[in-house]
């Protein structure tokens, strides 16, 4: 699937490009500070029709209206096991369509032996709490 990160009328030269990572793949503190990491409470989960990997999540970030998040975690997690849980998300990514469904954030997961592990707070916190 070809994904174009700019608006239909924009070209790469018209959109401000982020600074390249420093030598060795390191990012500056300013680059890291530009990533918004927040805790979301998963309200609803359903499989994406036609996909074995994707789940569609409805997530509360304390914004008044839940966001829709599409994630390739279906082989590691069941919808029933995710409802009501809190996890860490990147919330300032540009929306992206997967299988025709817009995703408005990205859940954070570690790729580990035995499957994925989702990043979660050690105790319940208000939805939308920012990670530091």
Give a nutshell description of this structure.
The chain is mainly beta and 132 residues long. It contains two helices and nine strands.
Can you describe this structure?
With 132 residues, this protein is mainly beta. It has a domain at 39-126: Nucleic acid-binding proteins (OB fold (Dihydrolipoamide Acetyltransferase, E2P), Beta Barrel). Helix content is 7%, strand content 33%. It contains 2 helices and 9 strands. The protein has helices spanning 29-33, 79-82, and strands at residues 37-47, 55-60, 67-71, 86-90, 96-98, 101-103, 106-107, 109-112, 115-118. Strands 3-2-1-4-7 form a 5-stranded antiparallel β-sheet. Strand 8 and strand 9 form a beta hairpin.
Write the layout of secondary structure elements.
Elements: H1 29-33, E1 37-47, E2 55-60, E3 67-71, H2 79-82, E4 86-90, E5 96-98, E6 101-103, E7 106-107, E8 109-112, E9 115-118
Antiparallel strand pairs: 1-2, 1-4, 2-3, 4-7, 5-6, 8-9
């Amino acid at each position: 699937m070809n994904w174009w990160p700019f608006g239909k009328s924009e070209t790469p030269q018209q959109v401000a490009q982020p600074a390249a990572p420093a030598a060795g793949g390191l990012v500056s503190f300013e680059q890291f500070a530009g990533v918004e990491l927040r805790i979301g409470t998963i309200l609803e989960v359903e499989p994406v029709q036609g996909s074995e990997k994707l789940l569609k999540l409805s997530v509360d970030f304390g914004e008044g209206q839940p966001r829709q998040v599409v994630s390739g975690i279906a082989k590691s997690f069941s919808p029933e096991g995710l409802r009501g849980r809190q996890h860490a998300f990147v919330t300032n990514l540009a929306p992206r369509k997967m299988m025709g469904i817009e995703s408005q954030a990205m859940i954070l997961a570690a790729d580990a032996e035995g499957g994925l592990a989702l990043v979660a707070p050690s105790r319940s916190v208000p939805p939308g709490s920012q990670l530091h």
